Amino acid sequence: MAKTYKFEVVTPSRIFYSDDVELIVFETDRGQVGVMADHVPMLIANQMGTLKIKTAKETKYAFITEGFIEISSDKVDAVVDLAEWCDEIDVENAKFTKKTAEEALSNPKTDKSMKLELRASIERSNARIRTAGMMRR
Questions:
Q1: Which parts of the chain have pLDDT scores under 50?
Q2: In this structure, which of 2, 54, 57, 116 has its CB flanked by the most CB atoms within 10 Å?
Q3: Is the pTM of this model over 0.70?
Q4: Which pLDDT score is estimated for 136?
Q5: Cα–Cα dist 3/21, whole Å
Q6: Could you confirm whether domain 5-86 is CATH 2.60.15.10?
Q7: How far apart are CA 67 and CA 2, in angstroms?
């Protein structure tokens, strides 16, 4: 049996997850990072994407937005703006949001600041759709 540690995901509105885990995997600007028990302590910025949580009993997937992950000797805390389980993601809504943003982005009258927001919306929709696909694994 693998060694475990306490892991929490906190958003501004709630404690999304809190339990003992064997492994977490999350996205950073340099790729995926996996954390097992006794990992070297650090504070790292995570990117929007899929969070993999492996316990002794199951593996779960969630979509998380940007935030910070603090790794200490016996606990890991993730502080993010938003977190949702893969089976809670409304894929049809994410696809609609993506399509609407793509259409607005292709409009030549769309200003520069709005284009940045639209690209971010497309990226968020794509990440949510990818995470929802993890449910089928």
A1: none
A2: 54
A3: yes
A4: 56
A5: 8
A6: yes
A7: 27
